[in-house]
Amino acid sequence: MKLLILQHVRVEHPGIFRSFLQEDGHDWVSVQLDEGESPPSLKGFDALWVMGGPMDVWEEDSYPWLRDEKRLIQEAVEERGMPFLGLCLGHQLLAEALGGKCGKAERSEIGIMSVQLTEIGADGIIFDDFPDQFSCLQWHGAEIEQMPSGATCLATSPDCAVQAMAWGPRAYSTQFHLEVEPDTVANWMDIPVYRSSLVAALGEAWSRAGEVSGRAALTVLPGLRFNSAGGPMTIDAESHHSTLNLVIARGGREGLQVVKRLGPVDANAGCLV
User: Fold this and answer.
1) What are 48-95's pLDDT values in tens digits?
2) Would the pTM count as exceeding 0.90?
3) Which CATH number fits the domain 2-174, given the four candidates 3.90.1150.10, 3.30.470.20, 3.40.50.880, 3.30.540.10?
4) String of b and e for 76-112 (b: at least 16 CB within 10 Å)?
5) Which residues are catalytic?
């Protein structure tokens, strides 16, 4: 099999999937759209993959090639029925290319976060052997607001309704990142907009540390107080654990239903790390 892979910044490549493709004997051609490269004709390719990137799907005036990219995706998926995989920006581009709509997310998702498979997602082949709920790397400030006609939602989260999507039998996409490798986050920190978004998520620790690095942040975490999606949190100075705003919830196919909110629960001082 020969794949055409569209990239929007050089460090957002297929990641760990490159090893899988090589092991299975597949070939691919990567096109750096942000560097002025034009994609070739789809003729001779068996599948199309579209990776993530720091731009938004609606920034066509700043990135005119987005228009051509959407047309190519539409041709590949709707006209040719080619297998398609889109990740992050590629997920959003698939939606827009087929008539859906994307917009700014009410709350950005950055970090390791949980997603929940829908009933259709749990029963399908793309997430075979995945648990119904799992953690993954998120790094986005935009989202699909309206799926294209005929699309199916495969996974969701409280802050992003469409975490994974299918269109027809061969086109799949995820808002989260499945391609990560040990050095992925470090490499993405070289992209200014990604760096600033991560600093915003962990800004107070890094501001106190005086530099942006994981090692620096660790030195100032003890005693740090900050607001999280679940409410105020504090890193215990002795144990290095954090207070957690806990709830008791009942899980099912339809998601989680909160039974009782416990509020902030302090770290166990006897549990040292």
Assistant:
1) 999 999 999 999 999 999 999 999 999 999 999 999 999 999 999 999
2) no
3) 3.40.50.880
4) bbbeeebbbbbbbbbbbbbbbbbebebeebeebbbee
5) 88, 177, 179
